[in-house]
Amino acid sequence: MSLQIIPVHISKEIVPGDDLIELLLETRTGKGLKEGDILVFTQKIISKQEGRKIDMSKIKPTLLAAGIGSAYAKDPRIVQLILDETKRIIRMKNGIIISETNHGLVCANAGIDESNIEAGYATLLPKNADASAQKLRRRIKSKTGKTVAVIISDTFGRPFREGQTDIAIGVSGISSIIDYAGKRDNFNRILRVTAIAIVDELCSASELVRGKTLRTPIAIIRNYKFDKKNGSLKDLLRAKSLDLFR
Amino acid sequence: MSLQIIPVHISKEIVPGDDLIELLLETRTGKGLKEGDILVFTQKIISKQEGRKIDMSKIKPTLLAAGIGSAYAKDPRIVQLILDETKRIIRMKNGIIISETNHGLVCANAGIDESNIEAGYATLLPKNADASAQKLRRRIKSKTGKTVAVIISDTFGRPFREGQTDIAIGVSGISSIIDYAGKRDNFNRILRVTAIAIVDELCSASELVRGKTLRTPIAIIRNYKFDKKNGSLKDLLRAKSLDLFR
Fold first, then answer.
1. The CATH homologous superfamily of the domain defined by A4-52+126-238
2. Which end of chain B is more exposed for a tag (fewer CB within 10 A), N or C?
3. What is the mean pLDDT of residues A52-76?
4. How many helices (H) and strands (E) does chain B have?
C-alpha cells in the first residue's frame, strides 16, 4: 500500500491561545482525518501558539553578547537570545554559532528564527515539544475519538552536507526509532543498520509538501504502520559521551 | 494534491548484468510508472548490479589495516576495504571509523556493508552513483518514453543524533537542492532557511516504505513537482573549508 503525504493549509496567522486542532478540523483535509494518521506540525506554528515570540526591542544584550555580535556581525540581541537558549557552544566560526540548546538539540542559532514573523520579533523553539505534541494528540482524541501520532518538525542543517532537512524536535504516540538490533537480513546475517530514526524521516517527508513560503504548517501522513509506544525527543539525542563530533 | 510513496517489490537476488529497469517494468507498480515520477533505488541493489561485491577471502590486509583491526576488534580485511575506499579518516573512536570516501561522502566504514549479501562477501558503494542514476533514467526513457528522476539512496548515521536516515548518494534528472536565498516569507522578510536538500528528504521518505529486511529496493514518489535541472552528489557535499566539523 502506498504512503500518502497530505498538506494542510491554514491561512490564519497563529496567535497564542489559538486552538490548532479546531483550525485543523475546519479544513477539508482535517475533516478527513483517519485513525492511525501521523500529523506533523512545524515548529513555527507551535512556537507562535505557545507565545514563544520575542519582542526584540525588549532584549538587553550582555557585554558577552555584544562582543560576539560585534565579532560576527550579528545583532547582539539575537546573540543574547541564543545564549539564553543554550547549554553549551559547540562551534563558533564563519558567523555561525552551533550550540547545544537547553533541550539537548545541536543546531545553528539555538533554533531562533526571524523569518515568517513580523519585523522586530523572533521565535524561540517550544519549551518542551514532546509535551506540545502530546497535548495536540490528546486534543485530537477528545475532539474526534481518533488515535493518531503527532510529531513537531524543524529545519536543521547537518555537518558534512549542504542543504537543510526537517527533523523531529517533539514526538507523541509513535516510537521515534525502529530498532533492528539483532535482526537478520534476507541472508540470515545480522544487519549493519541497527536503528532508523523514522520520526526524522517522517519530518523530512512532510517538508516536501510544505515548502517554506506557503501557509502549510501541518502535514498528514497516511498508511504508515508504526509502533504506538510513546517516543520522545530524548530517543533521538546522542549522548555527548558517545558522540564523535563534540 | 497529496504526495504518494509507492514501494516496488523485487524478489530476484540481483547479480551483475541484471537489467534493473526490465525487472522494475515487470512489476505491477512498474507498469504504472508515470511521467514526472521520482524513482529512488537503494545503494545495495545498484552495487550488486554493478558488481561492487567483494570476495573477502581475496583481500590481503596491509600492516596498517591489521593494526587498526586489532586495536578496534574489527576484521582487518574490512579495515583494508575501508582504507581503499577512503580519502581521509575523519574520526576513529569507539570501534567506529568515520571517513571521507573517495566520492567525498563522510560516513562510517566508507559505506562498506556486509548485510543483505551472502557470507564472505561485502558490498562497496557504487563508483559513481550519479552516473548509475543517469543510466537508469535513460533506460527508463528509452523503454517507456517517460521522463522521470532517479535518486540512489543509502542509510547513514549523523553527528549529534541517534538513529540513521536515508540520504542521496547519486542524483539524475532533478535539482538536488531548492534554493530559497533572497526569497521572502509571508511577512516579506528574507527567509532564514536558504536551501533544502530535497533529494535527501525524498530518500528519507522512500525509506519509510522500504524497511531493511524486505525485498523492496525501489520506491516511486508521485505528485512531487520538481526542478528538472540535473543535480549531482556534488551539490550535497559541503566543502571541507566551509565545514565546522572537519
1. CofE-like (3.30.1330.100)
2. N
3. 94
4. 7, 12
- Determine whether the interchain pair B160/A246 forms a contact, defined as Cβ–Cβ distance below 8 Å: yes
SS3 (DSSP) at B222: strand
Reported as a pLDDT band with limits 50, 70 and 90, residue B190 is low
Within 8 A of A208 by CB-CB distance, chain B residues are 3, 198, 201-202, 205, 224
Size of interface A-B (CB pairs under 8 A): 233
Q: Which residue of A has its CA nearest to B168?
A: A161
Q: Do A3 and B2 touch (CB under 8 A)?
A: no
CATH topology of domain A54-122: CofE-like fold (3.90.1660)
Q: Residue A183: what pLDDT? A: 77
Domain spans in chain B, listed from the N-terminal domain onward: 4-51+126-238, 54-122
pTM above 0.80, yes or no: yes
Question: Looking at residue A33, what DSSP letter applies?
Answer: -
Burial of B11-41, coded b for 16+ CB within 10 Å and e otherwise, reads eeebeeeeebbebbbebebbeebeeebbbbb
Task: Please write the tens of the pLDDT for every residue from B8-43.
Answer: 999 999 999 999 999 999 999 999 999 999 999 999
Nearest CB neighbour to A162, from listed B161, B215, B238: B238
User: In this predicted complex, what is the ipTM?
Assistant: 0.95
Place of cell 478527513: A32
Specify whether the CB–CB gap between B125 and B47 falls below 8 A.
yes
CB contact under 8 A, A201 and B180: no
Nearest CB to A119 within list B183, B189, B201: B189
B4-51+126-238: in CATH 3.30.1330.100 = yes
Torsion of CA A25, A30, A35, A41, to 10 degrees: -90
CB pair distance less than 8 Å for A162 and B235: yes
